């Protein structure tokens, strides 16, 4: 196949993907290529090898629920679900106990989210160390959950959401906060279900042990996201629990490091948006269009889905 034929083939595939995306999601009014003039930004090292040719749309296996384990770290062992006595390990090996729906695909990640104080005060076995689990796009935490009891505490939470999420009249119902008060954890559990008061989460793959491209890009993007969110008074960190903020977290390997930087966005209005090849000069428009409006950039989109809007 000649060079011209390959170019025409790529253009045709890109248009097909863009048309498919436009049928399902709201497309941003600007293009990522417009972003270079939006703001001066730090650039990635020229030596960083990024795949800029492969079409991104559809390069992610479908999933519906993302489980984020609090570790307070930005890098982890090669396979986080192989590290014994951790939430990720327990979740991976007890799926038959906590998965409420065999048709739902789950993603398990470690994250830079900080564990609760009890985690650091614990003096016993790691398997009974109280930690924190963030469930997206449900926008809830389970606090003081341990590797030993995570399955027993997670199952009733997911079951309650599954019952409330069923579409009515082909619409996706908004979830009411009363749902959380009706969740019944095991009688002997010290775990607590807590509503997140953030309006969105931005996840950056930073797993250096898997691929340094993720760590390099995540470090630069984290600074840019934080700076832009500060200007909008949306920045939140571990010491700031004001409602209505956007929290930026680093996460373990999500796949596709050759497309770095990978950025996953969850909004309380019900959008899950997975972008790739994200550059620092894209950040301002990503916040304005993806985070705050739930719009997408087809050129950067690996996957997206709509879920229940959250009322809390």
From TrEMBL:
Which Gene3D superfamilies does this entry report, sorted A to Z? Glutaredoxin
Among InterPro entries, the record links this protein to: Aim32/Apd1-like, Thioredoxin-like_sf
What's the domain of life for this entry?
Eukaryota
CDD domains, per this entry?
A: TRX_Fd_Sucrase
What's the protein name? Actin patches distal protein 1
What is the scientific name of the source organism? Geotrichum candidum (Oospora lactis)
């Amino acid at each position: 196949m000649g060079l011209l034929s390959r170019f025409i083939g790529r253009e045709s595939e890109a248009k097909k993907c863009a048309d498919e995306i436009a049928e399902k999601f709201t497309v941003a009014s600007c293009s990522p290529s417009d972003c270079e003039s939006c703001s001066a930004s730090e650039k990635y090292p020229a030596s960083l090898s990024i795949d800029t040719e492969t079409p991104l749309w559809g390069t992610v296996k479908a999933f519906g629920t993302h489980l984020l384990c609090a570790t307070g770290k930005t890098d982890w062992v090669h396979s986080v679900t192989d590290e014994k006595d951790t939430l990720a390990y327990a979740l991976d090996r007890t799926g038959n106990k906590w998965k409420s729906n065999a048709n739902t695909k789950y993603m398990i990640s470690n994250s830079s989210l900080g564990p609760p104080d009890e985690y650091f005060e614990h003096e016993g076995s790691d398997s009974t160390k109280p930690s924190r689990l963030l469930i997206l796009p449900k926008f809830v935490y389970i606090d003081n959950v341990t590797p030993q009891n995570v399955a027993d505490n997670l199952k009733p939470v997911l079951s309650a959401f599954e019952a409330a999420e069923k579409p009515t009249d082909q619409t996706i119902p908004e979830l009411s906060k009363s749902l959380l008060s009706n969740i019944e954890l095991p009688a002997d559990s010290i775990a607590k279900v807590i509503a997140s008061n953030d309006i969105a989460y931005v996840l950056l793959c930073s797993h250096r042990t898997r691929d340094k491209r993720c760590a390099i890009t995540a470090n630069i993007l984290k600074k840019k996201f934080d700076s832009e969110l500060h200007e909008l008074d949306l920045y939140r960190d571990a010491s700031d629990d004001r409602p209505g903020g956007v929290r930026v977290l680093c996460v373990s390997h999500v796949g596709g490091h050759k497309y770095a930087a990978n950025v996953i966005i969850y909004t309380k209005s019900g959008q899950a948006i997975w972008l790739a090849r994200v550059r620092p000069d894209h950040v301002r428009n990503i916040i304005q269009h993806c985070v705050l409006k739930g719009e997408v950039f087809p050129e950067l989109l690996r996957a997206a889905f709509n879920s229940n809007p959250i009322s809390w």
